[in-house]
Design goal:
Number of helices: 8
Number of strands: 0
């Protein structure tokens, strides 16, 4: 995912703000179903969801609730990192996290009956999940309302350390996957939520998002800009 700046809400016409907010909500909806399909495929979740999924297996928290908790930690970390440089506007990451977490649990309930009977079937669900996550991320970028907490944390870290966004994003994703592995192995004596699907997500979601962003730029100009 490429670094980008959000447009301050105060500078947006009301009509455009409403359209972009609805588009962001749609993006969170699509991403939530992407996460849900990845989980049901049981070939490993995307890096950003791997740790919340591991936490959900060892605590009473649902995947969505664990996701909200992680995002809250990441928001607090941004504030600690940036201190006076922190833009209060980024607190909008909190309601976005709440909505995303609730939608994730909703999506998991909707497709709860899906149960692939073969490895190929698992990959089908995994691929659907990857595509939906990529589409959702591209839509979230295009909305230009607010970044989600994961990207926000990476951006904040890059402001206080001489690290390129792309390099820091890789380090962030690898750290979450490592935490998921350590957590699940420590408590369950097996690695859960991290498999070949996680590697596929790490490689393909970014590539798909870049391609979709080209189309989304045209969509934004035609339908979202006032």
């Amino acid at each position: 995912m490429q670094e980008r700046k959000t447009t301050p809400l105060t500078e947006m016409p009301v009509k455009e703000l409403i359209k972009r907010s609805i588009f962001l909500l749609a993006a969170l909806f699509v991403m939530a179903f992407g996460v849900a399909f990845s989980i049901k495929g049981d070939l490993g979740t995307s890096p950003i969801s791997s740790f919340p999924y591991a936490v959900s297996l060892i605590t009473p928290l649902t995947v969505g609730q664990a996701t909200i908790a992680l995002h809250c930690i990441l928001i607090a970390s941004q504030i600690l990192l940036l201190r006076k440089q922190y833009d209060p506007f980024q607190l909008l990451q909190l309601p976005a996290a709440l909505v995303f977490g609730l939608l994730t649990d909703f999506a998991l309930n909707v497709i709860s009956d899906l149960s692939p009977s073969s490895y190929a079937g698992q990959w089908r669900l995994c691929i659907i999940g990857l595509i939906l996550v990529a589409v959702g991320v591209s839509m979230e970028v295009t909305s230009k309302i607010v970044t989600l907490a994961g990207e926000g944390f990476v951006l904040a870290f890059c402001k206080v350390a001489p690290i390129k966004f792309s390099n820091m994003k890789v380090c962030f994703d690898v750290s979450l996957v490592a935490l998921a592995c350590i957590t699940s192995f420590t408590f369950l004596h097996a690695i859960e939520g991290v498999r070949e699907g996680t590697v596929a997500a790490a490689v393909l979601v970014g590539l798909l998002t870049k391609q979709l962003n080209k189309w989304m730029a045209k969509f934004e100009k035609r339908y979202l800009c006032s």
